[in-house]
Amino acid sequence: MQLFLLATAFSGLLFEQLSATPTPVTHYTKRNSGSDANSKWDAAYAKANAALASYNLTEKVTLATGAGWQVGPCVGNIPAIPAQGFPGLCLQDSPLGVRLSTESSAFPAAINVAATFNRDLMYKRAVAMGQEFRGKGVNVALGPMMNMMRAPTGGRAWEGWGGDPFLAGAGSEETVKGIQSQGVQACAKHWLNNEQEHYRDTSSSNVDDRTQHEIYAAPFLKAIRAGVASVMCAYNRVSNTYSCSNSDLLNGLLKTDLGFRGYVQSDWWATHATTDALAGLDMTMPGNKVYGNAPDSYFGEELVAAVQNGTIPESRVNDMATRILAAFYLTNQDEGFPATNLYSWNFTDPRNQHVNVQGDHASIIRQIDGASTVLLKNKGSLPLKKPRTMAIIGSDAGPNPDGPNACADRGCNTGTLAMGWGSGTAEFPYLVDPLSAITTHASADGTAITSSLSDSDLAAAASAASGKEVAIVFINSDSGEAYITVEGNAGDRNDLYAWHGGDALVQAVAAVNPNTIVVVHASGPVLMEAWIDHPNITAVLWPGLPGQESGNGLVDVLYGAVNPSGRLPYTIAKQRSDYPADVLYTSSDAIPQVDYTEGLYIDYRWFDKKNIAPRFEFGFGLSYTSFKYSALAVWPYALKGGPRASTDESLHQNIATVTFIIKNNGPLDGTEIPQLYLKFPDSANSPPQVLRGFDSVFLRKGQTKVVSFDISRYDISVWDTNKQKWVIPSGKFGVSIGASSRDERLSSSLVLF
Ligand SMILES: *[C@@H]1O[C@H](CO)[C@@H](O)[C@H](O)[C@H]1NC(C)=O
Ligand SMILES: *[C@@H]1O[C@H](CO)[C@@H](O)[C@H](O)[C@H]1NC(C)=O
Ligand SMILES: *[C@@H]1O[C@H](CO)[C@@H](O)[C@H](O)[C@H]1NC(C)=O
Ligand SMILES: *[C@@H]1O[C@H](CO)[C@@H](O)[C@H](O)[C@H]1NC(C)=O
């Protein structure tokens, strides 16, 4: 208490000194979690229990059993129960928009939203997506996806938030809140350890208990505290038991330890037995046993029979039905929810009613594109200043001649890359390619554009680039889901090089043009040692996977309408072997063993521990202006107390606040992304530093703002595998504030009693 009063008094003084700056000290909107979500669940459970009193066994099982593959308009369908007035449920991919739909938006992928390091943009995208799912009559949006980028080639990592669980947790939390604010159920996936595509239907991911809690389950805890309605169990095994059959994982870690009160649905055909219900599976999707149209199901009639012969207690089915119906009430779907009006399987079928749900979402998409574009190198050539001549080089600059949706589920790499492939995709309503967006802008400036869109014709590239004031070379690297192989990549990428010989294309241009700018569209890290230090390469921009507004978002940054503030949500290494983990590509085992031997040390945690210099570190990104940091103060105001469970509300209470000042001391308005890294005491055996705070702070030229970060008990705790609780290690914590994981600007310490 005394500490609290002391700290408050001092911080009052600090703020008084700064009273000339009437700006709020936290720059994003805080949205409630935890106890708030719990009281909403209480009310939803009460409604569900009341409704279920009149359901018979078959009806309860109906709630838990998908109608079958392509039976119904959505990728997953729970049939209506007319006798109960239950309208049924439509479940639809994906984490970046409504999949298999028309007149809907193709949002930037989560990996880009992560690169904004901006909670408000994370939330706003999710609100817009929630509006689109609702407008189409989709009850359950199958996202966010929150598996970690453990191996940099991991095929689906771009559907998630990169290499840090704190960043992934923030993205997941804001996404759940945004989607569910529109009365659409979110689905946290894939539970758990689905970090590679090779062998995903057979392999076992083996992860130690502490790592499981501190890295892989961590974003799920945030989603659960945000009130997520459903969780999807994964294809893979964990500790040699299938995720959807895994009682330790579902009944144990998810429902007991993390306190998840919604329902667990299977990934598509990831149910393996009727008895998966005993392990904690609540809903089977799409309902039938294996891929195809056979109508058999592990649930449905077999589940009714299993209850009747005593294999499965009816109380378990009651619990399943309660959880599913509670999620429906939690999101108020009993009140005025639109009827499903999309039809996934044939867009010209009259059941697809072409309801336009896009609203003004193009503007938030474009805003995220600008905010997620990472400026990796700039020797002063950017922003562009009305060049007289410009060359645009590479197939990634232009359109796919057959249209942006020419390949089902984006399963090809032709034309500019704006999303990966697989079920985590959406149809593009349109795709603004960079060449056309730059051409539009250039014509207003009177810039003459020459283009060469072949990746292999190096002579044509050099000829186009030669003698031009600036040459922009576009390269890319794509990945996706295992059911489609693209250019020999079975989901996971085969390597970390740019596709289509991109390095040679860049080198051919840089050999002839002293003002060469490289733009990289990519699903994850790309090695660029072949050319990054080339003296003629004056700038490198990293727009990731920007969605439908790709070219417009890029133009905003190229010409300086937006001052770049995107930061890498993963490390770009100098060589593949520098990374702590890789995909297991070959195995002769019946159950391939994916051992997470690197433990806690994924992404920057590994590079820091092993003292490996990355090419570009986690959190890195440049600006057209510069920022000065000062006046770091750390204010502890609570006692640390004893071990706590994940569900203990006091674990999540703030116990310290960190404040500092940022000044824009450069030539332009701009946005800075201050990051807080905590260095745990040695007794914790933790990575050298871990991200525990970030914000996106806009500052006019010359402007100063106070930034503050709250630190919770959870933020400074480690998972004690003996106590099976969170404990605060004893000793002094280092507090580091900087512009990236390796650009520390201020440091201090935190001591708790
Ligand atoms: C359960 O309810 C359904 C109507 O939803 C009805 O058709 C069925 O006969 C009922 N089953 C039993 C065993 O009463
Ligand atoms: C109970 O019913 C299920 C589903 O039909 C069946 O698989 C299982 O073998 C039955 N068990 C017993 C003990 O009869
Ligand atoms: C799609 O629906 C249209 C309109 O009903 C129909 O003419 C067409 O044959 C359908 N296509 C397929 C592949 O079923
Ligand atoms: C840079 O570009 C110029 C053409 O302006 C060329 O003569 C030179 O060789 C290039 N430098 C390198 C290292 O390729």
From TrEMBL:
Q: Which residues form a coiled coil?
A: none
Q: Name one GO biological process term.
A: cellulose catabolic process
Domain named Fibronectin type III-like: residues:
672-741
User: Which pathway, per its entry?
Assistant: Glycan metabolism; cellulose degradation
The Swiss-Prot or TrEMBL record annotates one GO molecular function as:
beta-glucosidase activity
Name the reaction it catalyses: Hydrolysis of terminal, non-reducing beta-D-glucosyl residues with release of beta-D-glucose
The UniProt keyword set, sorted, is: Carbohydrate metabolism, Cellulose degradation, Glycoprotein, Glycosidase, Hydrolase, Polysaccharide degradation, Signal
Q: Which Pfam families match?
A: Fn3-like, Glyco_hydro_3, Glyco_hydro_3_C
Q: Which PANTHER family match?
A: BETA-GLUCOSIDASE, BETA-GLUCOSIDASE F-RELATED
Annotated family:
Belongs to the glycosyl hydrolase 3 family.
- Name of the protein in its database record: beta-glucosidase
